[in-house]
Amino acid sequence: MMKSKPDEEDYWNSSKFKAFTFDDEDDEFSRLKESKQAVNSIRGLVEEDDDEDDVEKVSWSGEPVGSISWSVRETAASNHRTDREPAFPKINTETPPLSRSHSGYSLSSLFKGKTKGGNFQSITDTLSDSSVRLYAPELRKPKSEYKDYVSDWSPEETVHRMKQGKSVSLEKFRSLQDKLLLLDFSVAAHDGNVITAVLIYLKRTLSKEVLFRELESRQTALRHFIHYLTETRDQKLLLELLRALGRTEDMVLLQYKEHLSIADENKRRDFLKSCLSLPFPADDSAHVQDHYTLLERQIIIEATDGQAERGGKVEMFHKFPRRASIVNMPLITTLYYCCFYHYEEPEGSFSSPLNIRHTFRISEKQFFVTALAARAKLKAWSDVDALFTCRNWLGFTRKRSPVTFSRVVDILQKNSAPTQVLQDYVALVDDVTLRISLAQKLKCHDIIINTYRDLKDRQLLLGYRGKVEIGSAEERKIIELLDNQVRSSSSSSSSSSCDFLFLLQQIRWKN
Amino acid sequence: MAHSARRDSPELPDFSLLKRLARDQLIYLLEQLPGKKDLFIDADLMSPLDRIANVSTLKQHEVDKLYKVEYKPIVSIILALASKLSGMFFHIASCCISLVVPDVANADKAAGRFRRYKIIFTPQKFYACEAVLEEQGIFGDVTTDEWAFYLLPLDDDIISLELPEFFRDNFLAGDQRWVRTAGSALHLLHTVYGPFSKIHGIGRFSKMAYESWREQVEEGETKARQAEIGKVFLIDRDVDYVTPLCSQVVYEGLVDDIFRIKCGCVEFGTDVTSSDKRVKVMLNSQDKVFDEIRNEHFSNVFGFLSQKAKNLQTAYDKRRGMDIQQIKTFVSEELKGLKQEHRLLSLHIGASESMMKKKTKQDFQELLKTEHSLLEGFEIRECITFIEEHINRQVSMIESLRLLCLLSITENGLLPKDYRSLKAQYLQSYGVDHLLTFANLKQSGLLVEQQPGETLTVMESKVGKLVNDKAAGKLTDAFSSLAKKSHFRALSKKLNLVPKSDEEYDLRVPRDMAYIFSGAYVPLSCKLVEQVLERDGWTGLEEVTRLLNGHEFSVTGSSRAKNDAQRIVLVMFLGGCTFSEISALRFLGRERGYKFIVVTTAITNSSRLIETLLDNHA
């Protein structure tokens, strides 16, 4: 039906069809009519599709309703395509779709990779010589069997019919080259539904070795096949396929993925152990090793802590009951858990945070952030303080942090640290504007007052006075500072005496 | 708010017709099953179905009971079963149907019950699904059918295919099963609202969808009619990953990011309603308050809403000092409208407050700053540190990945050192299972490691992605994936996507589409639409298309009728589009006198995009 297409395909402009012949004025009505017609056309579909035989098909006919898609494809079946819409052109870009007249050529350009076997030549041959096509089934099958076939479609026509959701029989495509032709046409048609249908047929009628071999040079078909096997959960065949293709990385990941469906933690651990020998790329190999080690450890910790909790002897578990099992949690969650319940333990212990840090090569920053959050949650402020303390070579202690202090404040605040604790850290924020805004947000009055003092900004300080409670220590402090200003301005004339202490007290306001 | 640009924009076609068509077909299908029947419906199909038919429609056609079928984690299955005479299933098409139906059917057989089953697939049934029924030995016991429900109008100018799985199937698995669906959807629009005069597009799947559509046009017969849609622009999602990965700051987008708009409907929690009831609201142009703020930058919304509230107060106050007669008219004519407005207003104020709270809690400002730096290519080290801390603190699994992807795409991949370190930290924070997620992200090209030396790039761009050469296939795994090189920096420069940051940008008076991202970035996807419409093709954009890995096309049809329809442009996103992009297009339309109709496989946002690629569950 597609063959007799005249040249107008390329010269669509020349079509006689005029775009506006009627129903210019009565738009609404025509639209209604159209929807009605569309619905009617569905009803019209009840007519059975042409060939309803007991031949085994890729079953697509089914109910009398047939395919509903009112996408006008049913009209395509009826061959009265007299007034065709002036068509849009095909897009001819680097990979032109198979054009009907020269399909052989476009095929070859599309499937470069297939030149190896001599079979490509023959594909083109079969395609151009349609008479061969007609006789082929007859040669292959006994006459009695042949009778069952009402129609005899070429691979191209078959693909075309499949695209429209019509019933076809694939059983007669028995030679490898027919099968491949079918596959290549379906790929060229860009219809994933058809590609998969053909692949299902190929899977059933070709040995794995042959199928895999042919798929290797057909990436699009291969992707469809992999997706099909994934969706139908045919793990075994999928693994075989990936192995045959040498796609080790995909293969090991697929195997690794299986652990997700194992609910029992001991079995899961054992499974992960078996994964260790898989040829992962170097980095991933380390990750999987960690996964195994972590789960192993979580199982031990869970058993011990669960017992301790039930025993009721350990105060921590009593005060802060565990909300969930630690098994299968991420590493950092585990670290947090250990910082929460097992902070003091010596490094030799499995559940000691330090042990975890070393075993899993946790970065200083990561460890710090996690420990900080856990200790803050417990309001163990001395532990928090100790995290920052470091001695310099003179033996002085100072506060140091691998993350910015604004981040530290954020973490503490999210763990509802009291203002007294917070302000120690807000004060360490380097950036003045950031410090002020944090202090304002957290109501650390002292810091704001001190900062304004350091900025020598009297106006801001004055303004801030209105924001603190009347009669509070903060207000007194502000007043004191402002008084200082009064004093300093009155005594400015006599300020020539350069007394160190006096200077310290005195503020030269900039406004 | 009033952007008075061109006043002469043409009227949009009436898309309610599409709903009517879908409903008629549904009813027809129901009538095919005479007698009482129960419906089992895929959870994912519930909302779309709701937009098409209500319960009473179903009851009229002898539907007895309705069941929702959730079969997670397996994609989306839409199912129906029977308890009386017959039953039916709905299914948005995946082979996994096999895993549910046989159980049910076989259980019935075992129990000696006789029920007839019918599975109705929508929008299309697949050979693979039937093959599975056949394999399970229940083909015949279970019959199948199709409900060609392609297009769901979500609003006056938004039509969705409601196929979120399109993205993963196409851009991750490389399965082209939806190409025909997209072509058919386009064909439906063409048949009802066409003929189109010109089609532009870019991307592999756009091209395939175009081809599929063209074939369907050729096969069918079309009545001549007055075109209501003139031009069409098709675009693959992978042409522009940057835009959907950015935080949305336009009201509608923000609502979607935070509350998730599902099928044009959002559920507000108690924090919004400030009562103990949750409430479901339709968000579309019918909601007059929403209609005015949906495209606004969030910073303007508060001011607008409070002004609105004041006006409302004044209107209410009018009744003071009225006599009886006046009050009577007031009550009968105005009060209802005012009450309605009042309700909507308090809802959106509540929503705004709640969003404000959520965003301040998570340091939204800092997050936006990082995103803007990434877009600008400025202080990348600081950005990496920010992302790292995000990961270290286990802030949000999705958000961390989103930022990583944004970093990768804007920087054309991560340095191997960074990639390794960030991946390791990510796995530590969120679980080693995410090895699988990283594999997916790599395959789709969203998060990749820079290759030592870019030798592959040249080859890749030459042979394109349809590499069939055996030798090439062995070069690297990246070859077998659909990943493509991102050239964001070059594109950004070429198309001037990132305005200079030193200029003030008044968000109340947007000057270009960048306003949807606080003036920091013009969405690439919409910029392409603008450029192509301006040039009526790709001429002069050769460099750009080269950077986008080609696959662009422009074709002209025959109907050259010069009418208003030529200024109605249908933009179809294959793989999803965001509300921000829709807002940007609406802005462009107002500026240039176009009306845009957005057709998308689904509404997406950064979370949805990333979630479809997660693989840490069985």
Automatic annotation (TrEMBL), chain A:
Give compartment(s). Answer: Cytoplasmic vesicle; Early endosome; Late endosome
Tell me yes or no: is Membrane among this UniProt entry's keywords: no
| Family matches, as Gene3D superfamilies | Vps16, C-terminal region (1.10.150.780)
Q: Name one GO biological process term.
A: vacuolar transport
Q: Where is this region: Disordered?
A: 43-62, 78-101
Q: Gene Ontology cellular component?
A: early endosome; late endosome
Record keywords, A-Z:
Cytoplasmic vesicle, Endosome
Cite the InterPro entries for this sequence.
Spe-39, Vps16_C_sf
The protein's predominant localisation is cytoplasm
Q: Record's superkingdom?
A: Eukaryota
Record's keyword annotation contains Translocase: no
Official protein name in the record: Spermatogenesis-defective protein 39 homolog
> To which species is this protein native?
Scophthalmus maximus
Automatic annotation (TrEMBL), chain B:
Q: Where in the cell is it found?
A: Late endosome membrane; Lysosome membrane
Q: Which InterPro entries match?
A: Sec-1-like_dom1, Sec-1-like_dom3a, Sec1-like, Sec1-like_dom2, Sec1-like_sf, VPS33_dom3b
Q: Name one GO biological process term.
A: vesicle-mediated transport
How the protein sits in the membrane?
Peripheral membrane protein
Q: Which GO terms describe its cellular component?
A: late endosome membrane; lysosomal membrane
Keyword hit for Nucleotide-binding: no
Q: Name one Pfam family in it.
A: Sec1
Which coarse location class describes where this protein primarily resides?
membrane
| Keywords, comma-separated and alphabetical | Protein transport, Transport
What family is this protein classified in?
Belongs to the STXBP/unc-18/SEC1 family.
Its name, as the record gives it, is VPS33B late endosome and lysosome associated
What are the top taxonomic ranks of the organism? Eukaryota, Metazoa, Chordata, Craniata, Vertebrata
